[in-house]
Write a structure and sequence with these properties.
- It is a single chain.
- Helices cover 36% and strands 34% of the residues.
- The chain is of the alpha+beta class.
- The protein has 2 domains: 2-45, no CATH class; 51-96, Transcription factor IIA (TFIIA), beta-barrel domain (TATA box binding Protein, subunit D, domain 2).
């Protein structure tokens, strides 16, 4: 749930700034949008490691509006760069196609 934690922390901080009138709502939304775009770009171009996982139980899954959601119990992660020990009691993955990432074929 790292992404959700990040999003909640950013949301809370930006909401506090909007409430105290340090920034307006439109700027807060632009900050979140820019952050998401930069993170997606960095992950697709700079991330070199691969992480695999195995869970004891798939608690729930859903596909709605081109968004997959998986909730798993007792998930164990393995990373090819660093050691990851222990199990995560519950993990939720939400996956969707990034905008502009449609499979495009080019003809030469």
């Amino acid at each position: 749930m790292l992404v959700f934690k990040r999003r909640n922390n950013n949301d809370q901080t930006l909401d506090d700034m909007v409430t105290s009138e340090q920034i307006n709502r439109k700027l807060a939304e632009k900050v979140l949008s820019t952050f998401d775009s930069c993170i997606n770009n960095a992950l697709s171009t700079k991330a070199k490691n691969k992480t695999t996982f195995k869970a004891e139980k798939l608690r729930a899954y859903r596909f709605c509006d081109n968004v997959w959601t998986f909730v798993m119990d007792n998930a164990e992660f393995k990373d090819n760069i660093r050691s990851v020990e222990g199990k995560v009691e519950r993990v939720k993955f939400v996956a969707c196609e990034a905008s502009g990432s449609k499979n495009k074929t080019t003809h030469q």
